Amino acid sequence: MSADDGSDRYDHTVSRRKILSVAGASGLAALAGCSSGGDSGSSDPTDSGNSDGSGTTESGDTVYDATYTNAYTGNPNDLHFNTSAIQNYRWPAGRSVFAPFLKYSFTSNEFVLGALSDLTIDDQEVTLTFREDLKWDNGDDWTTEDLDVQLQLAKKTGSSLWGYLDSYEIVDDRTARLVLSGPTNPRIIKFELTNFLVDTKAETHEQWLDKDASEFLRWAWEDPVASGPWSFVSKGRQAFEFERNPEFYNADNINFEKFLIESYGGNTAQQQALISGSEVDGAPSLFCPPEIVDQFPDNVEQVNIPAKWGYGIVFNHDDQHFSKRPVRQAVAHVINREQIVQNAGPRSKFVTDTPCGIAPRDQEYWLDDMKSDFETYGAGDSQTEEATQLLQDAGYSKQGSNWKDENGNTIGGDYFSPAGWTDWTTMTQTVVSQLNQFGFDFSISTKPTNDWFNQYSNSNFSMGSLYWLPGGSRSSFPYFPLYYQLWESEIGGGHNYRDPAQTEQTIPGPDGGEMTITPLDEVEQIARQSTDEDAREYVQRAAWHNHIELPFLGLVSKYEQSWTTSDDWTVAGDDNPNRKVKWPQFWWPHEGDLQYKG
Description:
Layout: H1 3-31, H2 45-48, E1 53-56, E2 62-73, H3 91-97, E3 102-105, E4 110-113, E5 116-122, E6 125-130, H4 144-156, E7 165-172, E8 175-180, H5 186-193, H6 202-205, H7 213-218, E9 230-235, E10 239-244, E11 256-264, H8 267-276, E12 282-283, H9 290-293, E13 300-306, E14 311-315, H10 325-334, H11 337-344, E15 349-351, H12 363-367, H13 384-393, E16 397-399, E17 402-404, E18 412-418, H14 422-438, E19 441-447, H15 449-457, E20 463-467, H16 479-487, H17 498-501, E21 505-508, E22 514-517, H18 519-527, H19 532-549, E23 552-554, E24 556-565, H20 584-591
Parallel strand pairs: 2-11, 18-19
Antiparallel strand pairs: 1-2, 3-4, 5-6, 6-8, 7-8, 9-10, 10-11, 12-24, 13-24, 14-20, 14-23, 15-24, 16-17, 21-22
């Protein structure tokens, strides 16, 4: 690719942004090619002057008639703003319009407040104090009457927060007190609250209090009342469109008028948009392999954030083969995890040292001196001798090219993987190739995301790809991933490990003897400890069980790759605590770190 190509791309970028600022909402469809009126984008961009101020903030700063455009995959017509109805709710649109209670910075490893002005946890009481200037975009004040409805609906729908609460008390218009059901690690409560948004208005949501949870969870909220940086304007097949919310408490931090989330057909289309330099200003979360990154123009900046999430394998614990621990351990020995990383993206991915249910970069802290006792299953090797011994001891034999049980049944089946997740496709191909080369018999079955989940929710699988950490900041605290693997709420326990999780098990212990453990009880003890030091003993025992039993098999973790452009927009620097708060396109405007340069 020539240097001239890059120059042309940059010019196109500027032109299109100016066109967008002129075209506004009515011109978007034409620009996206979904209207017959294509001339609406033909104004001379050099005359539009999107750097001309179109207004001012309350503090007198200029608000530019400029638009920040995000690339994302999904048809907005199918999506809504009911954050509890997760099947057709998508976080980029929700995070545009709803203010977060608080966030977690992976730069400073600290919690940062959003809609909350103070959060105190004292023994078994949690006091939430919200900002005095928290308002809805229709001008109504937010009050704890809204929170009251939100907490009632959270209880009705089984929010995990209620796993720690006995009750709550409304103190005044801005303050509420949560009463914990027992001693609880304060970090768990804070991580739980990072999942809460100011997304419930009593006036619109109280209608669901007297109805079944299932009815509320089917409600597609199409016209949200916003509390966050942006107000909803419209949606169509091509894009969500938002405009600056002047009632937002940090509105003075936002100096541009429009915010778009445009629909693209998948990772490849988003990558091409960034390569062209002419289509978008950012992509909140997009995997890009090195050969793609090398094609990006200089104004495209990568923000790497620890994902605490990654590619793994979920086993069906009712399956005739994978219900057996030696078979699961054999799978772990056969897979060369380093090879997966090399094939799918060594710049952004890394292996787990030992598959024990703790995020890789947190294992050393939590396992401490005990870490060397853990089985690694060969991170950089395919340990076929160990796998062979395990299978033979379990009654399997290799007949021809395949491993079979005593009844002649071959170990294998369909191996499910999500369509359009290009890096996952590569990792799935690597895993299945290694397993089949050893003597398993798997066929890759790629499915749309919803169908992929349904296979697991319905227990219609033997083993397949699924993320082994729940993701987000909470995954940095071992309680959450260890609990996730035992209970797996997102597939309704379709991996059939909930009963074993509540059953006393005897497994080999770290001292060469045996260990008796009821894994779910052990994990729940982690939540009840007030300090890391008190929790460490339980973390180590639960992790030891996990790496022996393998409810899941953790293979790879990664850095999230988030992309933004720096020619027209400011960027949070490497030392800025907001740099690694998920996600830049939504948190940086909140803090004034993403502004139009004018």
